[in-house]
Amino acid sequence: MKEVEAVKSRDTIKLISYLLKRHYGQQMADVWEIGLNLALRISDLLATRFSDIRGDKLCITEQKTGKQAKILLNDKTKSLIEAIRQRHPDHVYLFQSHRSHQVQRTEPKPLSRRAVTKAFAFVGEDIQLALGTHSMRKTRGYHLYQSCKDISRVMHMLRHQSEAVTLRYIGLTQQQVDNDFAQLEI
């Protein structure tokens, strides 16, 4: 699997959303924006059902780890979810495949990981960035770290077991850590 990057520029984050909407539609832009705000693995994000949303929290069991995750929904995420609910009141999944509705008498299915991977890779090529489904999670972790400089907070948000994994995950290099020490004099 190709290594993907965190998106470090907020302008690039907005550009990706715009390009996804332009080339693939509102649903793919919603995957990007909600994915950034929830920092879930793509398998958990796509498997999210409207019934998993309880008030202002998303309550799921992570597929990879089996851990329970209760994530507070920020205002932007609540607004995006409500817009999806308004557009598709009969959907079971937050990101439901439209193809499953085309075939009568089939169970609803979520958008496929393959479709999202393809869309993200296309946009990534366009802007010359290693963009993939994991970029959303990495981007959220990177920006949280930049705002608080607390790796344990980032580790907790991503539900990682070690700081080393989290540092590598968000693309923080030893050089950047060294620069932080050199620049901050007390």
UniProtKB/TrEMBL annotation:
Keywords: DNA integration, DNA recombination. Residues 2-182 form the Tyr recombinase domain. Pfam families: Phage_integrase (PF00589). InterPro entries: DNA_brk_join_enz, Integrase-like_cat_sf, Integrase_catalytic, Tyrosine_recombinase_XerCD. This is Site-specific integrase. It comes from Shewanella intestini. The lineage of its organism: Bacteria, Pseudomonadati, Pseudomonadota, Gammaproteobacteria, Alteromonadales.
